Amino acid sequence: MARIAADTERVAARIVDDLVVAGSGSGGGPGDFVTAVAGRLPFEVICTMMGIPDGYRGTLLRRIDSTTERAGVQQAGRRLRIPGRGIAALAQLHRVVARVGADRRRHPTDDLISALVTADVAGRPLSGRELGSFFSLLLVAGVETTRNTIAHALRLLTAHPDQRELLLADFDARAAGFVDEVVRHSSPIMQFRRTVARDHTLNGFPLHAGDEVVMYYVSANRDEAVFAAPDRFDITRTPNPHVGFGGGGPHFCLGASLARQELTVLFRELFTRLPDLRSVGAPDLVPSNFDHRVARLGFTCT
To answer: What is the DSSP string of 19-53?
Structure first.
């Protein structure tokens, strides 16, 4: 995380450079915040961290969108899709990382793919399939969730100008609280299914080993027994024991630290150089029961 901090700052600065140029050229807001900002940062940071050459990145971004576009979305006359059904797109992601991994085995560098292909796991290296699965999970999960969180963050700060003023009055002191409150309030992942590992009684209700259960993060993050005024967006909320990153334990989000860093670095850069940045209109939300996905969010810098 410390090593890629500088990369995150460079990507954020480059994104804001492009916003400044686009804004000055058109005399207004450049358009869609998701495309121009929210989707670019996590994708470029993860690709740099993994060591993906620039020539593959456009293809990868299109494949990521293909793997997740129908996750949790009901289609007429069909059952709900689940994450990972974009098999063809996932296979193409795997092929890309297999090519990069083969090169890194011969010529390792200091990127994450090099570390993975040269690692010893129980006396053997990762297989090509294992490398591809790890890569696609990291890339898809890391880009989608952070992209949505960034978009929701701008929308929430625009809708709550008092919280925006608090944040800008002392960004460094309030950035951590801001990030956690955005994750709690927006709940980028709405629900996950798990399998009960052993018999357990939850609030008087018996659960048995093997039972399939659904965890509604979006509900837990608005639990009146835990959060005072849970529908209020409050960046000074403390404590803030949200479960937006999975709630701890073996399923705690692998990228939580990265997501926190990305949001902090990006919004510091945005508000330092574009203090009038705001969203415009209501976000175009994808009707998914899985993630709180923002398809498009208008914005202006003036």
So the answer is: HHHHHHHHSS--EEHIIIIITHHHHHHHHHHHT--
